[in-house]
Amino acid sequence: MGVFRYTRQSFVREVLFIAIALAFCVPWYILLTLSLKTNTQVYFSPLSLPTKGYFRNYSIAWNQSGLGGSMLNSFIITVASVAGLIVVGSLGGYAIARRESKLASGLYFLFVLGIILPFQLAILPTFFIFRHLHLTGGLLGMILLHIGLTTPLSVFLYTGFVRALPREYEEAAQVDGAGFLRTYLRVVFPLLSPVTGTVAVLSSVVIWNDFFVSLIFLFGSTTQTLPLALYSFVSEDVSQYNLIMAAVAITIVPILAFYIFAQRQLIRGFAGGIRG
Questions:
Q1: pTM attached to this predicted model
Q2: pLDDT at residue 98 in the model
């Protein structure tokens, strides 16, 4: 095994990576510093460190923007959508991966096509169908919509992961008399925990931060998600940048905490897919 030599190229590479990391930290610095300043300080010294943390901005932003109810709505939509997505995606991916037929290949191609084609192409017919079924303007409609929109990616990830799993465990369960569903519940699904974590993290970030779909399907109703509440708050207090940044920071904290907590599962899921 060769000994690593620290060369000039290594130094340049490290400096480059550190510069990239610092560049990614700039938006966070701007967000936090502006959220802890008075509006006067924002205009006269926007990039300097706050001399005294003005944490009252967060309580003002919370009370004026109505983030409490919107955060609860976003939480319910995200959790329910991710749970349904895991059930549908894992079952679909398992069935496609273990069925060697033209039908399975065709379904897999359709799901891949669902990832490639933008959802905006079908926004009008989808909206008319949901309005006819009285599913617009409520949580149930948003949950069903998000499950449908993110199922192609979920099935794609699960299919790739299941194909990398050995069949011996499933064959042993089938010899013992277990059917398709029981084999899936008792044997296959516990082995899918890495990719399940990946699906949960990716879909949670997408659903939590969704603005376009919520704007179309919740327009005119009293139900709001966090992006909609933040959009309304920015429209009303466009000059209060300190309050706007405080509201943005509040909306980021829950999904950021979940991402930090689940990032190991995300990496394990991608690593398992790469090995497959």
A1: 0.83
A2: 83
